Amino acid sequence: MMTEFWDRLVGQNPYLQKHVSYLLASFAHWTGETLVEAEIAPAEQARRLFYAPFVVLSHNSAADPILNYANCQALDLFELTWEELIVLPSRKTAEFKERQERKRLLATVSKQGYIDDYCGIRISKSGRRFLIEGATVWNLLDADGAFCGQAATFRQWKLLD
Fold first, then answer.
1. Which of 5-9, 13-17, 73-77 is predicted least confidently?
2. Average pLDDT score, the chain
3. Is the N end or the C end of the chain the one with fewer CB atoms within 10 Å?
4. Where are the domains of the chain?
5. The predicted structure's pLDDT at residue 15
């Protein structure tokens, strides 16, 4: 079932594989690490990132950034469909009272390029709250090295409700 979803998603969205290449290259640029094996074909990298057992999501560089990528683990955790994800302002992944802290975090990442020790509370579509721990948040760079958004990945979260 999920393989069919992936095939449909990639078939409808040629942007996806290119965006994943930005996610992976930018992560390696800032951290010196990889999220998936670098020596495999780009299409396979995109597929493996989508099905990875950790969360990866990103937003664009708009003044009020909109989410533009989430892997399967992130879609499940935030209780979103792809269609809901790509129209959601990323600020709405945090409760109102947490948004100022989130804004400070993203400003720090903008200046430094990345951080690798973020902890914070996020909220799913249904209102389920969870604490993320040890997140890496980084600036996305396009093929020309220009800023094009920000991304996050994390392996640890704890439900709060």
1. 5-9
2. 90
3. N
4. 2-159
5. 66
Question: What residues have CB less than 8 Å from 6, skipping those under 6 apart?
Answer: 47, 50, 51
Sign of CA dihedral 32, 37, 38, 39: positive
What gap in Å lies between CA 129 and CA 44, rounded to an integer? 33
Q: Which CATH superfamily hosts domain 2-159?
A: PAS domain (3.30.450.20)
Whether residue 154 contacts residue 134, with contact meaning beta carbons closer than 8 Å, is answered with: yes
pLDDT digits (tens, 9 = 90+) for 82-97: 999 999 999 999 988 8
* CB burial string 37-76: b at 16+ within 10 A, e below: eeeeeeeebbbebbebeebbbbbbbeeebbbbbbbbbbbe
- In angstroms, rounded to a whole number, what is the distance separating the alpha carbons of residues 23 and 52? 14
Query: Rounded to two decimals, what is the model's pTM?
Result: 0.89
Backbone angles phi and psi of 66, in degrees to 5: -105, 135
Query: Mean pLDDT throughout 149-153?
Result: 97
